[in-house]
Structure formats: structure tokens, C-alpha cells
Amino acid sequence: MTRLSTAAWFLALASAAAGQDASERLEKKVQEISDKVSAAFVFFPAGSGMFISKDGFALTNHHVAGKEKNVRVTLHDGRNKKATSICTDAVGDVALFKVEDLEGDVPYLELADSDRLEVGQYVLAVGNPFGLATPTPSKMVYPSVSLGIVSALHRFQQHYSDCIQTDAAVNPGNSGGPLVDLRGEMVGINGRIATRYLNRVNSGVGYAISSNQIRNFLPTMRAGGKEGQAHHGKIAGLDLSRAHQNGRGALVAGVRADSNAEKIGLRADDFIVRVDRYSIFSADRFHGVIGTYPEGAEVRLSVLRGEREVEVLARLDRSDGPELFGERRRHDHGGYLGVLLEDGDEGVRITYVKPGSPADTAGLQDEDVIVKFDGRTVKDRNDVLDRIPAHRPGTKVQIVVRRAGQELTIEATLGKRP
Amino acid sequence: MRWIAAWALLIVPASAFAQTAEEDVCTSFESLHARLAERVAPAVVSVHVERERDPSERNRSERGGWAAMMDGGVFKHRPSDSPASGFILDADGWILTSHFNVSGNVRSVTVTLADGRRLEAAIRGSNATFDIALLKVEAKELPTLRKAPLEALRTGQFVAALGRAPDGRTLTLNPGIVSAPGRLAGRGIQVDCRLNYGNAGGPVVDREGRLLAVACKVDTKFAGSYGQNSGVGFAVTWDKLDTILPDLRAGRSVGESRKAFLGIQANSESEVEGVEIDVVQPASAAEKAGVKRGDIVVEFEGRAVRNFDQLRAVIAAKQPGDVVKFKVKRGGETLNLEAKLGWAPGE
Amino acid sequence: MKRSLAGIAWILLLAARAAAQEDEFSRPHTRMYKEVAPAVVFVKGGGQVGSGVVIDKSGIVLTSPTACGVSTQTVTVRTRGHVEYSARVLGRVNEKELVVLKIDSEGPHPFVELGDSDSARVGQISYAFGDSFGSIQTDDQVAMSVGIVSGRYEISKERLPGAQYRGPVLEVSAAVNQNQDGGPVVDRTGRVVGLLSLNYDDSKFTGIAVPINVLKSDIERIVKRTGADVDVSPAGEPWVGIELDETDDGLVVQRVYAKSPAERSGVRKGDLVRRANGRKTLTTKTFAETLRPLRPGDALSLRVLREGREIDVDLKLGKKPVY
């Protein structure tokens, strides 16, 4: 090609691109990305997932398949394969599997840098809401794709400590599936939705675990974690004030003697203002950021001590689950159940049951609505959170919950607060 | 250097051209929606149905508070008392709407055209499985929609569902994308438009305003119990629609294919192993098969029956018209019975 | 050497261009967020929580009674940076779901302009902003959702039972949820075209907003009055100081409050109120309606029937006391 014809070709392309209007070009882009993500999609039983490497590593939510050692999955082209659990993060709600016996490379999704996401950015949620995907005559199985934007970032939703909020339609069955940008890269894994009116269907608010959190955990998870479990990190012995600080930072209320927090040099009245590249404006935000790191991760804190800014390096201890943030309840006899609660339209809802906790042993489940605790009707989450520690470890309590329209009475033996 | 200069001269204007000619998605979408509204509106009608009032319905709507809110929600999956949507299928007066919109004890149907004309409509035929009803009005040379090429149908394609608001006049427009092809057992597509009960029966069009599919009623399985949409909606593609149109034009209606009905009620107090029949519905499949009150169903379709829930589940998996074989204990005897399942009483 | 360098530079330029262009589509939305979000606040008061929008750099906030209470005088506001301020109620029109606040801080506060809701057409892009399930309150994140104006219609009793507001509304398809009451609907130019104060169409999870044009004269009146008035305390509701009862004879004064304008002007228990400011008032409803456009300091002329004789009582409205 001569230089002139190359130039002409280039100019023609540019004008052609300009000729199509923006919504038409967006449509083409959405179609293109839908095809790309569908090809890398993995159907888990009752949920969604995706390939993240050409040799068949796949991610989903822990609550979809994390408790299984192996499951059968279906690919976009209809192939049914066995997938083995490599590692699961029960708190972060991410599970890593390896799909076996793949004849050759598979299409996969790259993980984006979720810190570069902006509110307003287009995203696509790809998944299998309500299990609607069934094999078509061509044997292909099509996941559902919905288009929306990033509505908010760095949402602290308890164990989803730093999640992405989107208005793309996400429903039960989407769990474990990818949230992708217009480059076709995974920016998050869809796993929770906010709901109202007692219905578990989308109301325009979906929460996704960020790709950067997943990236923080991948090395540990690929290596199998500790007996197949990946653990989160925390700074042991650090007690943060719950009072509103007007954005100044996370105020250290106290540091337990001989703890990691003391050893690394944190002191009462310090204001934690940054963790690595993240600015910290409140205690919740601090816990939100720390919640994205695994046990053993090294983080750099910037601390305001009086007038000075001090740097503190910390190696995170194991965290067994989201903290109840050391809230000192009125009567404290040390009783412990192991649940996270949220007030909602339908009542006090359990949003997380810590694996291995008294709640887990008793058979309490995520999404159970607590109706009565220890014989008394429950008004809000503080009702329950006040009464749990008012009992001694070993006390048996009757808990009435509503689950899938039915009321069940569960007996739990309270444990000792860790 | 001349080489670089030449390239620079060409690249910069070309990319600048691309930049300035590019309007942003907002203005582009607004123009698109305005164009669609203009192109499609003439064919979108309002369908108003007068029904025989069920006295029990009236009492319910008079309750206040929480009950009223719940009932208000429940009513949203009953056919609405306010006008619903439809569109002109053929120029000589064939109107398409959702079966759901015209179900129940219908006294009369009135169609309001885009130009304001109100016409009496006759329900020619309906298909509950496809959720389509065909109406006929006395009118000629009505505006219709072009059909979109379905070979181009793909996930990610932009669509818009159009309808008429409950005021019977205002055009409503609900944009979204094709979420997946090949849903509804191959009959249609899934879309992420925020469809609501008013959209059922309205057209789903592509970006050129061509008919792709007909919006189905909001299915409570994929919506909350109050019928709120969840971003999961369905529409029957026009080629599948074409397969049932001849029947509809000829006046043949097809009922809801999903709910098979045997016609029994069980005694839940019963301690026996099996299902003790308390009530046999008159004229039901069970009555015709010879089932009697007091019979205990012990085997159904080759499997032992332990309780009524289990029996109900097996029936739910059947289709009306299916023949089922079962065993009942009566007195000291075991009888072999056979029933042809009927239709569950509709909403 | 120079040529290949130039070639590489050219390729890099194109690559950078291509990389940047991947999100050209999102740009109007991300830009809109940067412009509008700083002006959206979390509001709390009277046992309620919700959202609000700042419309003037001095910190004038529009919100709704479902966000901060139906009769509160002081509320709390959280702005960008997780900073909490108190704010006083400058005025309210509860039947239009409008409350106007002034943040107790000079600012300057980021704000957005009011648009023209009459020109909002079905199909136009619309954005909803607010606190979504605690996003501002806890996470210092204003949430944004995008959709279109999906309907323009009138509210009647049947459509939204329990709503105070009757009149035209804008319906938007952008996702709107709890705590977003009082938040703004913004068009693609970034101007407020409505206030999301009626978001309970449970069939769609869409937002229903009172069009800004319906609220503009009230906003102007409330804000202007404050600007001219040196009085630092809130304007308050007009107060006569009587309790009225509806009887067969008409409106009877059941009680006259001590130290009230009514007491000072000689209204007595047992008086039958016939007219207020010339208007016939035989029911508490008409009396309240006559009072509604009036403010503390305005004149109220009552015609009462006392022991068979008609008397005119003129009084100057006071400020409703806070107990």
C-alpha cells in the first residue's frame, strides 16, 4: 500500500466511525462484549461464574458453590464438565474452581483495575437470573445480559466491605457472574442485591465484589489457601471509635496491650487517614478497605497523631469474619452467635452466618428473618445485638425465624465472643 | 521528517473529525427515543376492558393499610381495570394484545387508536401459553409496523417496549437491551426493559422502530409478589407469533398450558400413609375417573405417594390433557384408576 | 532510526487514543456525576431519613417531608466528605412534598441549577441522585442511576392512595429506592427537573417526582423572604391561637390560647367564626385553606358571631410556638 492509500483508508475508517451515531456504536459495542463474555461464561448449579484463565480456572460466589468439593458446570457451548474446588473465601464470598478435562484453551475474562471505575460508567451484568438459561436447539446455552451504570463505589455492605453498586438488573441466579466494563474486562462479581417489599428481586441496586479485592486474594487462592479456605485480615487489638468524625478519618479509641495494633505503633487518639492508596474518612471505611485484604497482607497506614502524620506498616492477622466493631453492649456476659444483621422492610434479616459459629451449627441461614429471640419479639437489629451478649456462653436460646414464607424455631447454643 | 509531517496532517484531522462528529450517548438516545416514539406511536393502541365485577374483589380493595398495599400489589397481576396496551397487527383492523389483558369475565373491549378514535373490539381468539389475544375492530387502512429481520437478533441489541399509559392516551416507552435469545421454550426473547403490567401486549421494537416481539405479562415468578418488574421481561418474537395467528384468526383459543388439574382436595388431618381425598371437584378429571371422597391415593404414576405436597408436585409437572395412572385404597380394596388431566381454573 | 521512532510514536498515539475511547460512551454520565453529586446531600430529621439537593451556594437545600419530618424546625444534613451540619427549615409546603432548608454553614456549597420541567419529554435521559440504602450516610457515596422520563401524568387518589400531593408528576425509569426521597431528578444538562418525593410505585421501582415547575414559586417565596428578613430563626407557621370545632352552627371557638394573637385581639371562647379575610369559613378545612398562604406577621380579619351580634376581629398572625 502506498502512503497515500493508507492515509485514505485511515481517513475513510475514521469518517465511517463518526458517521454512525453514538447509540448505534454503543449498541454494537454492547453486542460485541455480550458475545465475548458469554463465551467465557460458566453455568454453576443455581448460579453463575466465569473463566479467568485459558486453562480453566473459574470464579463464582462462595454462597453459590463454595461449600462443595466439586460440582458439574455447563459452558456456553453446552459442554457439561466437572469443576473442582481449589479454594474458597467464605467471608469475601468468592470461590475458585478448576474446570477439568477441557480439550484445549477456553476463552476467559481479564480482571480490570476496579479503582479506575467511575460512577456513571457503563457496565454489563452477565448471569443466569432465575435459572432461565436452557439449552437451545443449537446446544448453546445463553446467559442473560443486562446493561446499566456504576451507581456508587466502595460501598460498605458488611461482609461485602468495599463493593460496587450498579443499576444493571441483577437477580437471584446472577450470583457469581461477572460485572464487566465496555472493554469486556471483569470489574466485579455480582453477588448481592438490595431489595424491598419482602421480595428477592432486583430493585435497581446490585452489589458486586470488586476485581481488585479478588486480585488481592488470587495468589493465595490459586495456591489453595489453608486447606481450601482463604482468610481475611485484620489488625488485631485495634478498637475504633464509632462516633461520627465528620470525615476526618478512623479514630483509634484504644489499642489492646500486647496486640499487633500496639506492636506496630498505633495509639489511642490516632486518626487513621489512609490505607495504601485509599483515603479513610470513617471507621466503617477503614474496615471496608481492610476487608479487601487477605491474612498476611502488608498494608501501609497513614496516621494523624496530633499535628504530625506518621506512617505505620502492618501485617494483617487472621480475621474470622466481619467484626461487630467492639460495640460495648449494655449487659455483656460474652455470649456470641456469629451473625450479621440488617434492618429491612421485612424485619431483622441475617445477612451473613459466620462459618463454624454457633449460628452456623444451629442451622441459621443467610436471609433468615428473625421474628423472635429468646421468647421476645424482635423490633430491630439492636434488639438482637443487645440480647446476645447479655447471655453467658453455653446458654441455649430459642430463635424463631421466617424462611421462605415459613416460620421455624431454631435452638442455638451461644458461644464465647472471639 | 516529511513522512512524519504527512502522517500527522492526516491523523490529526481524521481523529478530530471523529471527535466533533461524535455526539454523546445522551443526545443520541434522546433523538433515538423521539424517533421511535414518532414512528411507532401510530400503531400503539390502548385496550380498555369492561369486566363483570366479582363482589369479593370489591371488599378486598376496601381494606386499608398493609392489606390494601398487598392487595394493590396483587391486583397488579390481575388484569388491570385501567386501560392496557396493544398494537395494530394488520391494516384492516386486527389488533394484538396480551391474553392477560383480556382474560376474566369480559363484558366489552374498547380500543383507542393513536388518533383518538375509540372502537368496539371483539376478541377473536387468544392463546394463554403465548399470552397473545387477537382483537378485531371495524376499521381499514390502519398504520402498522414493519417487521425487524430476526436473523440479526442478538444479545445486546437495543430494544424499546411501547405502550399506552393507564390514562388511555399517553405513550409510554421503555428502553433496554435483548438480554438473551431463545427463552420461553424458544418462543421468545428476554429483555431488561423495566416492563410492567401496562406493557403486556405492546410491541417491542428495534432501534429502527420495527417490530421484533410482543411483550408478555409480568410473570410473578420473575417479579416480586407485587408484580414489580425485576429487569427480567419476556416477549414473543413475531415469527413464533405467526405460527399461532392462523388459529387465532379462525377464532380458536388455546388455554393456559401450564396448569394441569386433577380436581381433588386432601384431608390434611389424616394420619394415613398416602393422600386421603376430602373433596372431589364436580366435573373434574378426578370425578370422571371415578375417584370418591375418602379414597386414599397410595401410588401415582408408578411412585408411592406419601403426602399431598408430593402429589401436587407431580401433577404440576404435567400438562392438561396428560393421562395419569394411579392407585387408590377404598374400603379394603386397591383400585387402579386413570384420569385425563384438565385445566386449572384460570385467574 | 528517526522513522522507526516516529512509527512507534504514531502507534502509541493511536493505541492511547483507542484505549481512551473504550469509555467514550460513559463520558456524559461520569461527567454528570462529577458535576451534580457534590450538590446532593443526606438529610435526617423528625425520625425520617432521605436525600436533598443544594440549589444555591449559600447552602439552600430542597428536600421532602418524608426525608426530614412534617413539622421539624431543625434537621441534620451530611455533605460530601462525610461532614455533618445542622440545617434549619426555612419553609415547607407539605402538600407538595417540599421542604426548604438552609445549611448552618456559610459555604460556598456546591450547587445545581433548577431546570424547566415543562420541557421534559418522555424518552429524555434522566438521572436520579441520592442516598441509596445508606450510601451517603455510611459510605460518603452519592448514588446515581440513569434512565429516561418514562411518563408524565396527573396524580389522582386512585393512583397513589395516601399521597398528599395531587397534580402533575414526572415518572422516571431510573432506579429509585428508599432514602432517595427528596433527591433530585436531573436532565442531561445537569439541571433539576423534579424532586423524587413520591417514589412508591411498587410495580416498577421507578421514581415519581414532583416537577420542579410546580415548586418554583414556593421555593422563590421561601428563599426570598429569608433573604430580605434579618430574622435568623425560621419563618414558622402562621398562628392564630384558637381551637375550632365544627358544629351544626358552624365553626365554634373551643379554646383560646394564652398570650396568642387571638387572645390579644379579643377572640372569645364560644365565638362562631363566620368569615376569615372575607372568605366564608364554615369548616375547619376552609379555615385552614384561608390560612395557608399567610405567614406570621400577616393580618387576619375574622368575622364572628357573638351573642347574636356580628363582630369583626382583626389580628396579626403570630409564629406557631414550638413546644
Question: Keyphrases for this structure?
Answer:
heterotrimer, B: 347 residues, alpha+beta, Thrombin, subunit H, Pdz3 Domain, six-stranded antiparallel barrel, six-stranded antiparallel beta barrel, 20 strands, 23% helix, elongated, C: 323 residues, 2 domains, 6 helices, 20% helix, 37% strand
Low-confidence stretches of chain A: 324-328
The portion of residues assigned to helices of chain B is 10-25%
The CATH first-level class of one domain in chain B comes to: Mainly Beta
Beta strands of chain B, count: 20
- Overall structural class of chain A, as computed from helix and strand content, comes to alpha+beta
Basic shape of chain B: elongated
Query: In the CATH scheme, what's the topology name of the largest domain in chain A?
Result: Thrombin, subunit H
CATH topology (fold) name of one domain in chain B: Thrombin, subunit H
* Percent helix range of chain A: 10-25%
Largest sheet of chain A: 6 strands, antiparallel, barrel
Q: How many DSSP H or I helices of chain A?
A: 8
The CATH superfamily of one domain in chain B is known as Trypsin-like serine proteases
Oligomer: heterotrimer
**Overall pLDDT metric of chain A:** 89
Structural class determined from secondary elements of chain B: alpha+beta
Mean pLDDT of chain B: 80
